Backbone:
């Protein structure tokens, strides 16, 4: 049976201008015989004004508007579902093509608002305690799809009166996927996040979280210096091999050396280590001692993450008492340690609970075509 494809895929064959950082946009305009300042004008329309229709870009000539409309577009991911949590957190399921969706989470606090952004549809890494792993891997997100999540959220939440100033103050690349497995698109998206004519967010307020893809981490160091978070989760190779299988390829010693290099020569910078608290697995007093010895080798901060359960997981979260013991013991040893507040878990928006893949959600139907039809008819 012939299945009808959705328009979304068709629009992707056009140039999506969200795919470009400023230098690339300058080249794009130069190739059209236009001055490079057109790039900053375009960026301001898109990111500061939220104007995506070339016809409304009044400082462009009619001819340029027509040319742009013919070959390019500004395409944002489309919202399939919105889940507001009782604590103010909002999770969105966003469609990126006819068969795939991702999740993005908005986390407001009194002094800032953080957006948790996805970098892949699914993930290849198979960490045993993460629900994204259960859905397998589908594909990398494009730069436009990463940037589009921030733009979508900005539109949804509202822009501030001061056009250049964005309501979202912090970005964490901690959603679905492993950002270092999609480094080029992620780096270009970071360019747009930090670009003054786009989101203008300082690199200190952007955090990339990785499970430790060491060669990509070395490359990242040459390309950017946003804040780094590392999903450690175990203080020795034996246990980490089990929980974070990529450790078999890049063991802790190599990972720590790469972390040291990342902050080398930057005296006040620290790597944030993430440690999910799994009852009876990695939360014994001896693990705290091993962790202290390990973290003394790198300028480090430690985030203890309460494990967030999801259907089918064999793990449970450590008790409050155990988490407090860890925090107190490791703080005492001179390492800044916090227990991360769980946000949005009433709508499954917390760390490790993101599963956006439409294919996965409709395994019942077993047919992608069926999903496409359901989307089209507004049932998904
Ligand atoms: N792949 C990257 C980005 C994901 S970030 C990385 O591994 O860092 C999401 C953070 O939440 C990671 O530290 C991840 O290990 C952690 N996490 C995954 N599943 C979790 C769960 N069920 N409960 C709490 N934290 C979890």
Residues:
């Amino acid at each position: 049976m012939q299945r009808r494809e959705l328009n979304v895929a068709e629009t992707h064959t056009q140039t999506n201008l969200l795919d470009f950082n400023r230098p690339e946009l300058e080249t794009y305009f130069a190739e059209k015989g236009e001055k490079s300042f057109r790039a900053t004008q375009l960026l301001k329309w898109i990111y500061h004004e939220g104007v995506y229709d070339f016809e409304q870009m009044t400082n462009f000539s009619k001819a340029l508007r027509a040319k742009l409309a013919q070959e390019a577009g500004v395409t944002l991911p489309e919202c399939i579902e919105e889940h507001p949590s009782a604590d103010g957190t909002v999770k969105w399921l966003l469609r990126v093509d006819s068969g795939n969706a991702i999740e993005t989470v908005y986390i407001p606090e009194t002094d800032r608002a953080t957006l948790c952004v996805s970098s892949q549809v699914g993930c290849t890494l198979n960490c045993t305690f993460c629900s994204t792993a259960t859905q397998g891997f589908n594909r990398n997100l494009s730069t436009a799809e990463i940037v589009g999540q921030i733009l979508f959220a900005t539109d949804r939440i509202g822009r501030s009166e001061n056009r250049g100033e964005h309501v979202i103050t912090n970005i964490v690349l901690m959603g679905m996927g492993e950002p270092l497995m999609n480094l080029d698109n992620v780096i270009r998206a970071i360019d747009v996040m930090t670009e003054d004519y786009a989101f203008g967010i300082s690199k200190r307020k952007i955090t990339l979280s990785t499970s430790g893809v060491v060669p990509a981490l070395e490359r990242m160091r040459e390309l950017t210096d946003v804040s780094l978070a590392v999903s450690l989760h175990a203080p020795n190779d034996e246990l980490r091999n089990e929980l974070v299988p990529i450790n078999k390829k890049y063991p802790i010693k190599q990972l720590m050396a790469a972390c040291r290099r990342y902050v080398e020569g930057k005296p006040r910078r620290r790597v944030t280590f993430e440690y999910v608290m799994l009852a009876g697995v990695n939360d014994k007093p001896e693990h705290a001692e091993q962790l202290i010895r390990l973290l003394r080798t790198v300028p480090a901060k430690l985030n203890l993450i309460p494990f967030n359960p999801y259907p089918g997981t064999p793990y449970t979260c450590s008790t409050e008492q155990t988490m407090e013991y860890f925090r107190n013991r490791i703080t005492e040893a001179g390492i800044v340690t916090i227990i991360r507040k769980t946000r949005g878990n009433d709508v499954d928006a917390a760390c490790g609970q993101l599963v956006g893949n439409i294919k996965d959600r409709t395994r019942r139907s077993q047919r992608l075509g069926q999903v496409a039809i359901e989307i089209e008819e507004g049932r998904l």
Notes: The pocket of S-adenosyl-L-homocysteine is lined by residues 127, 129-130, 174, 178, 209-211, 231, 274, 276, 305, 307-308, 351-352 (CB under 6 Å). Confidence is low (pLDDT under 50) at residues 1-12, 359-380. The first strand starts at residue 15 and ends at 16. The chain has two domains: 11-73, 78-369.
